[in-house]
Amino acid sequence: MSDDPETLRQIEELAADDRPLLILDVDDVILDFIKPFPRYLKSKGFDLRLDSFALHGNIFHVENGNVAEIEHVRTLVDDFFHGQADWQTVTDGAADAMAQIARRAEIVLLTAMPHRFRDARRRHLDALGLPYPLLTTEMAKGPAVARLRGETPRPVAFVDDQPRNLISAHESVPDAALFHLMADNSLRELMPPPPDFATIVHDWAEALPMIERALGIDGHDATASA
């Protein structure tokens, strides 16, 4: 797997940090996607019928019942991300958990989306009080996870809702702690099971102590000094 050049450029802009590292996907990990997306589609005259874990083939015209063509699906997704601030809210428990972890670890957001939407997402995250560095990638996430860790063997945890991204991270950083978290757990039965080396967590309340243990920051007071 190779690096996405634009993602690499974004990583090079980050300040150096040798603390434990938490890398988070965005959609359906810290921002709801699958809950607001059907409402957005309704506003455009479409229905989402999730018979499989995919958008193409599951979006239908309300007026005639025909399945939306792949190019139309891409346009709908693009328009959704253009207007994401009107639709996407913070996943339950994410903001508080991130704030707690951020006192003792570096947090970086790594979202798989076209780079052209980075500015819109940055503005939305800032408005929601989530100021953590944001990276976009249009390629596999594993190389970005490795680049973010850097040369120091610091603990790394990576949270994503897509098994393929967890697999990619494992291939690039075999000792990373991997967590499979979905904002809507009812969709688990529609997707391939996460790999055995990833820990399944059902919400942020369950994920928080596990991530802290994986990063070696559990039980430590961020204000304590030597």
Characterise this structure.
It contains eight helices and eight strands; from the N terminus they run H-E-H-E-E-H-H-E-H-E-H-E-H-E-E-H. The chain starts with a helix and ends in an 11-residue tail after the last helix. The radius of gyration is 18 Å and the shape is globular. The C terminus is likely disordered. The strands form two sheets. A six-stranded parallel sheet has the order 5-4-1-6-7-8, sandwiched between helices. By secondary structure, it is an alpha/beta fold.
Tell me, what's the shape? globular
Q: Tally the helices: what do you get?
A: 8
Average residue-wise pLDDT = 93
Please identify the oligomeric state.
single chain
Q: Structural class given helices, strands, pairing?
A: alpha/beta
Provide the gyration radius in Å: 18 Å
Q: Tell me the span between the first and last alpha carbons.
A: 42 Å
Assign a percent range to the helix content.
Answer: 25-40%
Number of strands: 8
Main beta sheet strand tally, sense and closure = 6 strands, parallel
Please tag this protein with its features.
226 residues, two-stranded antiparallel sheet, alpha/beta
Could you outline the blueprint of secondary structure elements for this entry?
Layout: H1 5-12, E1 21-24, H2 36-43, E2 46-48, E3 59-61, H3 70-82, H4 94-102, E4 106-112, H5 118-127, E5 134-137, H6 142-149, E6 156-160, H7 163-172, E7 177-181, E8 198-201, H8 204-215
Parallel strand pairs: 1-4, 1-6, 4-5, 6-7, 7-8
Antiparallel strand pairs: 2-3
Helix pairs in contact: 4-8, 6-7
